[in-house]
Inverse folding.
């Protein structure tokens, strides 16, 4: 039961048809096994790169698809509905490319962006630290200028693709001036002194690698500084506005997958001589799930259209992330309830969907932080 979409162009319609084909044939059949065995699907990201999906919102002259966020996010939703780890990884890669694509010089973009968008390079976003999650301005990883390079020392935490990424958009301290002393770097993923800890043992998204990232006297060439020294927190927060829309779309994709599974099960499962979807108590539950999914989708699309028009969208991105990820948690939980005992087993995917939904309320800023962002914007 694919989502009904109102797309702005026939090109976008063709693109979404291609995405659905890839999701159906190349992603969904492999998701359950890879998640069970905690295998990172690097080959799937190469496939997304070859088909042009890793760079959808970026300029064509660098190999991107030059698609509006309204279209990119709906493609991302389709990917996430088939395999959440791949959807989140795609969102992280696009966010990791944002700093260079938006704040980099023309020379930097020409040098690195084509490989990043083609899928030859997979990205990671290195902002958070164990003591600096919601309070990003408190990070302590330090970059010290020495001649034509910087020497980086510190530890990043909760980094998606840690140890498997080919580059990291790294936020590091270059001055002791609080948030104004943070700078942004495009750090190579195979540098001497850079290592990843053992992957975190997570509740869900087990096919996606998350780990600490350690910098021990890592040399980063000075031409890999993105923007000016001190611009890092500004770049990071700007990237997070767009990244939150990516996670919102992933949340809706996961909720849609759970709804589809619940409806299919309710149509074929019989009790008292009738399909259980015919019982009003269950029918109303499914109706509420469908209403929540469509409302959440409309929320992220409204924010995306503001972004595409160049309007401020920080508050709308926070609202979308909050609404869509809370919807994912509620709808996946309700899907388990529809399936009853079967939903609590690994024979059906809804138990995995429920486990995967929880982290959406946490990363790219917890949903409590989203409420702070919304409230502060209202006060202004």
């Amino acid at each position: 039961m694919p989502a009904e979409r109102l797309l702005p162009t026939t090109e976008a319609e063709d693109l979404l048809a291609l995405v659905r084909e890839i999701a159906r044939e190349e992603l969904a059949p492999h998701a359950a096994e890879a998640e069970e065995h905690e295998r990172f699907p690097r080959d799937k990201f190469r496939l997304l790169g070859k088909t042009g999906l890793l760079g959808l919102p970026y300029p064509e002259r660098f190999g991107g698809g030059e698609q509006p966020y309204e279209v990119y996010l709906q493609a991302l939703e389709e990917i996430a509905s088939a395999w959440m780890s791949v959807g989140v990884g795609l969102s992280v890669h696009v966010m990791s490319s944002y700093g260079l694509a938006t704040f980099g010089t023309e020379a930097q973009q020409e040098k690195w962006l084509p490989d990043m968008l083609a899928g030859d390079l997979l990205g990671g976003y290195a902002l958070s630290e164990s003591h600096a999650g919601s309070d990003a301005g408190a990070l302590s990883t330090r970059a010290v200028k020495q001649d034509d390079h910087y020497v980086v020392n510190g530890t990043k935490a909760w980094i998606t693709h840690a140890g498997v990424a080919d580059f990291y958009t790294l936020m590091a301290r270059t001055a002791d001036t609080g948030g104004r002393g943070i700078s942004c770097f495009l750090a190579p993923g195979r540098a001497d002194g850079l290592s990843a800890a053992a992957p975190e043992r997570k509740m869900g998204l087990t096919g996606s690698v998350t780990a600490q990232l350690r910098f021990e006297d890592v040399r980063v060439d000075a031409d890999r500084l993105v923007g000016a020294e001190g611009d890092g927190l500004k770049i990071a927060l700007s990237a997070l506005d767009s990244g939150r829309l990516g996670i919102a779309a992933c949340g809706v994709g996961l909720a849609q997958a759970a709804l589809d599974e619940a409806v299919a099960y309710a149509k074929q499962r019989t009790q008292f001589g009738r399909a259980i979807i015919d019982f009003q108590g269950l029918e109303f539950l499914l109706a509420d799930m469908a209403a929540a999914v469509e409302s959440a989708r409309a929320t992220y699309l409204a924010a995306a259209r503001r972004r595409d028009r160049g309007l401020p969208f920080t508050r709308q991105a926070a609202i979308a992330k909050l609404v869509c990820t809370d919807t994912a948690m509620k709808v996946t939980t309700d899907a388990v309830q529809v399936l009853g005992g079967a939903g609590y087993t690994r024979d059906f995917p809804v138990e995995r969907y429920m486990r995967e939904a929880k982290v959406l309320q946490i990363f790219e800023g917890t949903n409590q932080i989203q409420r702070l962002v919304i409230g502060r914007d209202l006060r202004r």
Observations:
- The mean pLDDT is 97.
- The CA atoms of residues 119 and 171 lie 23 Å apart.
- The beta strands are 123-126, 142-146, 149-160, 167-173, 182-188, 194-196, 210-221, 225-226, 270-271, 274-275.
- The radius of gyration is 21 Å.
